[in-house]
Every structure is written in C-alpha cells, then in structure tokens.
Write a structure and sequence with these properties.
Helices cover 29% and strands 27% of the residues. It is α/β, with parallel strands linked by helices. Helix 1 packs parallel to helix 2.
C-alpha cells in the first residue's frame, strides 16, 4: 500500500511540535509516526493490528534516526488502555470508506474500509486515550468527516478545526483533516490546494512538504506540458 500525498500532508501539517506523547493509530508502514518523530521530541507509540504492516513499521522505525523514541504496539486500538494521563497528540489516517465496494485484497480492505473499525469505535478509543488538554487529528473523506462531526460529542469530543484539502483551486475538497479536542467551542477552518496542476505543487503545499520530500515540482506547470 503506497504512501499517499494526503497522508503525507496530515503528517506535515498537524501541529505536533510541542507534544510530549503521541499515538499513531493504524500506523501501517509507520509514515505518520515518522513524520511526528522528525517534527517533535515526543515519545511516539504506533499501534497496528496487521502483522505484516507492523513488521514493516518496526523495520522502518529501527532504520530511522529516531528509533529510541518510536515504539510499535501490535494490537487492536480498541484494546489499548491509557498509560498514565494518556496522549496529548493522536494522529490517525483511518480505514474510512463506508458501504463501498470491498477491496479484493483482505489486507487492503482492512486498511481502507471501516467495517473492522467503525468510526464510532475509533472515536471511543480516541476519547479513552486522549489526555484532557490533548488534540487528535483525523484524515477523512468529506462524507465520513460529516459523520465524525455528528458523532464526536457523544464520545466527549468536539471538532475545533477543519483543514479542507483540495487537489487544485478549482476542485471541491476531497479530504478533510479534523482536529478533535475535549473542550467544546467554535470550529475554525483553513484550506489548502495540493497542485497548481499535477504534478506541480502549490507554494503552500511545497512549503509543508519540503522538509520531507526529496524532489518537488513547484508553481505553474509549463504551457507545453
């Protein structure tokens, strides 16, 4: 399962710099945990239920400069219990497709469809594991983001910021990053477009990706392309 631009943007954008303990739910190959390790001095736990993905994440963590701060937990997040006061930062690019055509590959279906981890269960896990002043960031398609907005108060969580993610300035948002907190209050909004024209990133996207990408194309695409 390849690394996606949307997941990379979540890792580059989420304001984790001051976090002390971070949890990456459904780490897969460890992408978000590695972003968080590069951007903070936090201790980071990454939970993954798929054995093969967990093995790959362990290898990636061990090969990184931050191996001493990264821990892999091979488990279902619904079985985790808070350690101390919990986490002040939680990152999640969850299996988010609802009632869509299942993937023929069982492992990809587990990673992409929320049958095995419904949003209600995910929100309950976040509520249990998040400390009082913590923040959680979820990357979701637009319909599932609406579902989280509606369901989060029942879990004691409120959406306090939304990042609307577009492929380009002419396109409607295709993903949202929701920032969840324990305290109710107003919800602010920001927007970002990934591309001027694929594969040429907007300046805003390039500024986020530059510390992590080895190559970037930035600005308007040449007319001849």
């Amino acid at each position: 399962m390849k690394v996606t631009t949307d997941a990379s943007l979540l890792g580059a954008w989420a304001p984790v710099e001051d976090a002390r303990r971070i949890l990456d739910i459904g780490t897969g190959t460890g992408l978000l945990a590695l972003f968080a390790a590069q951007r903070s001095s936090a201790r980071i736990d990454a939970v993954e239920v798929d054995a093969d993905a967990a093995a790959q994440a362990r290898q990636n963590f061990a090969a990184s400069p931050w191996a001493d701060r990264l821990s892999l937990i091979e488990a279902d997040v619904r079985e985790l219990t808070p350690d101390g006061e919990g986490y002040d930062g939680i990152l999640c690019n969850p299996p988010f497709f609802t009632a869509s055509t299942p993937n023929r590959c069982d492992r990809q279906a587990l990673a992409r469809h929320n049958d095995a981890l419904p949003l209600t269960d995910l929100l309950a896990a976040i509520s249990r594991l998040l400390c009082d002043n913590g923040r959680a960031w979820l990357l979701l398609p637009v319909p599932e983001a609406g579902s989280v907005r509606a369901r989060s108060p029942a879990a004691g969580l409120w959406v306090r910021h939304e990042l609307h993610l577009r492929n380009d300035r002419q396109s409607p948002p295709h993903r949202l990053v929701l920032q969840l907190e324990r305290r109710p209050g107003d919800c602010t909004r920001s927007d970002i477009s990934l591309y001027e024209r694929h594969p040429y990133h907007t300046q805003a996207a390039a500024d986020l990706f530059r510390p992590y990408y080895t190559r970037l194309r930035v600005g308007p695409a040449p007319d001849c392309e």
